[in-house]
Each structure stands twice: as structure tokens, then as C-alpha cells.
Amino acid sequence: MPTTVGSLHVLCMKSELHLNQDGVKTGDHTATLPVRDFFHQILDEVQPTHIFTIGTSGSVFADFQLGDVAVTRAAKFKLDSEFRNEAFNGQVFTSDWQIPTTHLDTAVELMQRFAPQLVEPPLGPPTVAFPFNGPLVEPPANAPDIKLEQDARDMPEFHPILTTDYFEYGTSENHLDDEGAAVEMGDAVLGLVAGERPSPPNWLVVRNMSDPQINGALWAKQHPINVQTTWAVAYYLGYGYWTSVTGALAAWGVLAGLSE
Known about the structure:
By secondary structure, the protein is of the alpha/beta class. The protein has helices at about 35-45, 105-110, 185-195, 225-260, and strands spanning about 1-5, 10, 25, 30, 50-60, 70, 75, 90-95, 145-150, 160-165, 180-185, 200-210.
């Protein structure tokens, strides 16, 4: 879908490609990478000055809540399945340019209109088998925000998005916040591709939090119900659409700044 933002000509595309579903096995934990070809084709045909990856992600920071948007110029492969033995596993890629911030406050203001869609339900035990006499726990108010790695108040500079080849999520005990900004399944491929280009474009990751950091205490080894995964999936299914709206607004904020 071609569109404009200010003076910019913008091409919006959705690939439906993910590291955990599209590769064809080539060896022991190695596979083809179709999204790599996809990025190269975009760059060949469009010749953009900037290219963004935009979408949902799992939060790894306790204070990155539903609808918050992590914006970073870095990406890291964290692979433990189909691509575990690929040479690029563990590599970090960066794009060194200044993200314009002149319209980000406006984007955050617009994001607040969707805060009512991001309210979490009051919680209690899932069945009456659990002894429980108190009222349901009410969630805190949610005010979606943009978290920028260029701003040290949010996270370290060039703190990377974590690209996995399996369904990973941050918990209060796995400390993924020390390693990256959020988890998803594809963005580091853009960094890999940019490094293969003679004249790489500026690139950026804009990822909304569709599931918050999960309580690490909700775990019982070998239990038939993985409560952590149950909650992570439920949040994604319930809030993925509206958090994508806040992510789109954050992307607009950056593009609007570039158009000046």
C-alpha cells in the first residue's frame, strides 16, 4: 500500500514471514531464510532511504506495558531451534542514525485514545479450588508510551530487539531485559541484510508490546499446564490488534519527523 506522510513517499508491506514457520531444513538446526530474500527484494526494487520493521512483540521490561512501543536501531539473533547453528546466531546489528523525535509527543498523545482498549481484567484464581477470600486484584491504569533506546531514560543506547525462532517471552526471572528491548521473530534479519548491501539504508525497529512481562513465579516444571505460556498467548490474542494501533502511531511519529 503506497501512501504519504508529509513530504515522504511511504510503502507499507506485510510479509507474513516468521523465523519459526517458513524455513526449509538444510542441516542440523540450519534452514533457508525466505524473509532474507524478501528484504533484499524490497531494497532492490524500492531503493528506500529508510526501512522500518513494525509489529507486535513480547515485553521483557516490567515497566513496558501493553501498548507501549519499543523503538530501537539495533537487533540481535537469539536462536535455539531451526536456526540454532547458523553463523549469524548471537550477532548484533545496528543502524547508526538519529531518530527524529519532534512528533513523538504527538504520537504518544494520540496513543492515549486507545488506552481503554488496553485495560487488563481484574484477576483472581482460575478455579474455586484455590483458597481465596479477597476481592479480585484490579490492574493499574495504562498509559501507552514510546520507549526509545536513543533516550537513556528508557533503555541503553542501541539496546537490541531480540529475534527468536521460537515463541519466547520475557518473565520477571529470565532477565531478557538485560539482553534486549523486546522479543519477536524477524527483525534481526533486516540488520543482517543491511550488512550485506553495498549502500545499506537506515533501518529501525518499531515493536509494540502485545504481551507484558510474565510473572516468573507462575511455573511448575513438568506441569501439564504451562501457565506462563498460557498467559503470554492469551495477552497476544486479546490485545494484539489494539497494541498494533499504538505501534502504527509510533511509526507515524518517526516518519513525520523524517518528512521535515
